[in-house]
């Protein structure tokens, strides 16, 4: 199992990728005035909401001069919005309690727009800086502890643990102080206040058990403000990523995640954001647990969030390619003769799907070894389907001939946008998927001696 210290050192805090909007609430009105340049006759700006999977337009602000856009909405408790042109160019903003807010920026870079007269958003930026400061301090102390343990330097290790204890107390003090001055922002800080195991764990609890059970110990999941807080998504995403990175059995990961979700009211929007965070975190690690939570989202929100549900249906199909024993997702693609070849046509053979390209050096260096295995086991029922991520036919054909690749080959000549590669979540090559005679997945990414051993096991030689 990987060290939790190493994983925590490499974990990145994601500074906002979602938002939720709700216009019901207290009496009064909020006016957001956007002064933006270089909009190239953009007719409208948009406020977006986030459902844990994708962004949705919640409100539009038209313009008459392509420079000034105004949003008017009912006052509410503080909540996050995203303002911009689309899901790739937006600015997070907290609205609801301040009567007038001004945004100054450009259409080309909404991310760096300024909110000069919003005290709430100014303080929010300070809280983000504080969160990053805490993360950097903890990372430094963890590195010192790791190095001291490797060198068996007890004195330095103890000093690092004491420094973490001081940081724990500092973080708790800052959290309590913020609760008094700005309770809303304190809830964001609570989501990002993880107290060190070395000073808060107990003898009957391992470090990973402490992480799994205590990571969100300062969060009140029943608090309605979390319904509209993107940090729920971000924090849960990081939590799921870490669980999927330390070598825990899938069943243990699932137990921790389910324990967390069970603490959140199932009919709340907080649950939707947290579930989206779980899915995103597991997807980033190609976890076989993705399907369980993606299906839960689809079943729960397909009527209210149909676009998100449709997107997750595609993810469900792709995630099957990471589950040992699952049926490999079928696909059809043209071969060298421009004739369609279907994956399921190879049922009855042990099949290696080999994602490669003529320009891929590691792929080409691996080819002689694969040729040897093909020659050794082909008569016994072993076959290969090469899926090329080339963009042009000529180098693809030349590489096949030069390397003597006598097996089946397909490509849609779309490079990294190859439909089969996308279906199987391929983000690097060479990459392989080994199927049994019934078209079920035996293993992924077997190469070299590992592929030798597996084929020897299958064919008894």
Structure notes:
44% of the residues lie in helices and 18% in strands. With 461 residues, it is an alpha+beta fold. The protein has a domain at 332-459: Glutaredoxin, CATH 3.40.30. The protein has a five-stranded mixed beta sheet with strand order 12-11-10-13-14, covered by helices on one side. Strands 3-2-5-6 form a four-stranded antiparallel beta sheet. Helix 2 (119-150) packs antiparallel against helix 3 (154-181) and helix 3 packs antiparallel against helix 4 (183-191). It is globular. The model is unreliable at 12-26 (pLDDT under 50).
Short description:
The chain has 461 residues and is an alpha+beta fold. The protein contains 15 helices and 14 strands. It is globular and about 75 Å long.
Task: Detail the topology: elements first, then pairings.
Elements: H1 4-10, E1 29-37, E2 44-50, E3 55-62, E4 68-74, E5 79-86, E6 89-95, E7 100-106, H2 119-150, H3 154-181, H4 183-191, H5 197-200, H6 207-214, H7 230-243, H8 250-262, H9 269-284, H10 290-301, H11 306-319, E8 332-334, E9 340-342, E10 350-356, H12 361-377, E11 382-388, H13 393-403, E12 408-410, H14 419-423, E13 431-435, E14 441-444, H15 448-459
Helix pairs in contact: 1-2, 2-3, 3-4, 7-9, 9-10, 10-11, 12-15
